[in-house]
Amino acid sequence: MGGDAGAPIVIAGAELALRRLSGIRFAIYGTDTIVEPLLDAHPTVKAASTFHHCEVAVGMDEKPSQALRHGRYRSSMWRSIEAVKTGEASVAVSAGNTGALMAMSRFCLKTVADIERPAIAGLWPSIKGLSIILDLGATIGANSRQLVDCAVMGGAMARALLGIPRPSIGLLNIGVEEVKGLEEVKEAGRILKAADLPHIAYHGFVEGTDIGKGTVDVVVTEGFSGNIALKTAEGTARQIAAYLREEMSRGLMSRIGYLFASRAFANLRKKLDPGQFNGGAFLGLSGIVVKSHGNADAPGFASAIENAYKMVTNGLQQKIEEDLAQSHRSPVGAA
Amino acid sequence: MGGDAGAPIVIAGAELALRRLSGIRFAIYGTDTIVEPLLDAHPTVKAASTFHHCEVAVGMDEKPSQALRHGRYRSSMWRSIEAVKTGEASVAVSAGNTGALMAMSRFCLKTVADIERPAIAGLWPSIKGLSIILDLGATIGANSRQLVDCAVMGGAMARALLGIPRPSIGLLNIGVEEVKGLEEVKEAGRILKAADLPHIAYHGFVEGTDIGKGTVDVVVTEGFSGNIALKTAEGTARQIAAYLREEMSRGLMSRIGYLFASRAFANLRKKLDPGQFNGGAFLGLSGIVVKSHGNADAPGFASAIENAYKMVTNGLQQKIEEDLAQSHRSPVGAA
Q1: Average pLDDT for chain B
Q2: Fewest CB within a 10 Å sphere: which of A20, A174, A236, B68?
């Protein structure tokens, strides 16, 4: 029911995903008067789905506490998360209110093992391909132990989703020299270096410029700076796109140039389309919840479903639990 | 002596600045064997300068403590800052090692009035024009009082440099809802709202996407997230430029398009050239120190000199001291 455009995008996205992924089924939670006509209009989705009417739909502007109060147990958001808990679903995908989705996911699924809190991990396009960055804002601030947990979980996601056997991990900092930065970040660096975990290759500190360069496969930071980095990059991309549009429409020569190079511009737009790397994941809970961008279109929502599918089929949850256990057993990692 | 290319850029930049700014004079600090031949090659700069040979030049890779130890009192960096203290110069401009420059500036110039620490403020191009952002990494973390001081100093810089009579101020946060974010940021917001200072218009929280949009004239944050935001934006801009180069050189049609639209691309490059908004300022000390980007070329260094000139002629230091005093007198601002 969530996202800027609501259920139509979700059902249309499900149809696109169905064409590419064989054998998947959907458990769909929402308001019957809205979703049932959409299912009638998309018979292939209807045939592959079980629909559950829910009395409550969480609004995009509700505060997490408010959403929990009136939406717990009975909202479509809650029930889609609960389906992961009961095993009815392998993974939940939602375009809804991020704060409410995280609050409900924590409340319903609880954190795994002895981890203190979950993180939001996102895909970030770089010159070299895709990277993973976390935490994008699940919580503010992090101690060294929490940063190390993020490194381990991000590494598991890079293995499951990007197919990198031993992903490189960088800690986001304000300088690459070992003397700089937050005490917690420095401590996390010392732990990761000493622990030398089997499934991740600790690279060292990285700076903001390294994210787009693809210096590492996984960028680890606490939620405040991670969220600022993500949104600043989005803002910069939009700003440059606006400059480009303005310049290409100014004067006849530029417009002719634009026509000749239209395929190049189409490719550029594709590279910058956030839909293609849609699907942030909540990691560190007893199940995976995938958050689609609120303004994703149907192909974007389909990408979120496909990413969720890959996470499940490549055993992300199991990898996270095993890797965390291994890291916590390590005498250094447990410090 | 600093910057990636050293003294040649500085002297060539000084020559460019001299052509545009009448009546300025330079006090130049550096190694005689390097600088004197450059001055001979640039007679107009030589005629407008006093040259002071210094025994020590701070290296770009020295740690601040190391630079202070062997460069205090006698390095070209120290002596250029000291010239501001003694009144021999109105402002110092350096392309040198940022950490060392900040350490020496703090040690030599000391903070003004009852301010706790300085900040690094930079110019940020937005869709609407130029904005100011601070702190870009002078210190990590900030309490509400320090954030309010940054708001006041950034406001003074926007008045002096951008000519905005009552600049709008935004506090960088991870959501615009009042419930979100760091406690210190929320408290700073309450103080700024209640104080309603005469020279700044408090806007509220802004997110990373708002920086490039130009939602506010001044974006305030603590140094860790400010540095991450700046470098992430730089990285994103370079990434998109690389995509664009790649796409425009792929295939004959795109190359023809590029030729037709070459002026548009030149304009875009100009808009994204960091040289044109070069010149971060150290604010909150008893004098202004301008930091030119280490990889600036001669026109970029000239921009830093021109910005420094504007800061001086428009009384930035006096505005900062007056505005801080006014803010600290306010019963709310002093809270």
Answers
A1: 91
A2: A20
> What are the helix (H) ranges across A97-182?
98-109, 144-162
Mutation choice for B interface testing from A230, A240, A273, A277 by most B CBs within 10 A:
A240
Q: How far is B236 from chain A (nearest CA, A)?
A: 6
The verdict on A233 and A137 lying in the same domain is: yes
* Per-residue pLDDT tens over the stretch A108-136: 999 997 888 999 999 998 989 899 999 99
Chain A (185-244) residues lying within 8 Å, Cβ to Cβ, of chain B: 207-213, 221, 223-225, 227-240, 242-244
Is the Cβ pair B254, A236 closer than 8 Å? Answer: no
Residue A235 resides in a domain: yes
Burial class of residue A320 in the structure, from the number of CB atoms within 10 Å of its CB (0-12 exposed, 13-18 middle, 19+ buried):
buried
Output the domain CATH number for residue B135.
Answer: 3.40.718.10
Q: Is the pLDDT of residue A335 over 50?
A: no
- Taking 80 as the threshold, does the pLDDT of residue A24 lie above it? yes
Q: Is the ipTM of this complex over 0.95?
A: no
Distance from C-alpha of B309 to C-alpha of B325, rounded to nearest angstrom: 24
> What integer is the mean pLDDT of A179-184?
76
User: In which domain, by residue range, is B245 found?
Assistant: 119-275+318-329
Say whether A257 and B253 touch across the interface (CB within 8 A): no
Q: Rounded distance, CA B187 to CA A215, Å?
A: 37
Domain match, B134 and B209 both? yes
Q: Does residue A41 sit at the B interface (CB-CB below 8 Å)?
A: no
Residue A120: its H or E element? strand A119-126
**Is residue B335 pLDDT above 70, yes or no?**
no
pTM for the model stands at: 0.90
Question: Do B79 and B214 sit in the same domain of this protein?
Answer: no
Residue from the list A182, A224, A264 with its beta carbon closest to the beta carbon of B254: A264
Q: Which of A85, A109, A133 is the last residue of a domain?
A: A109
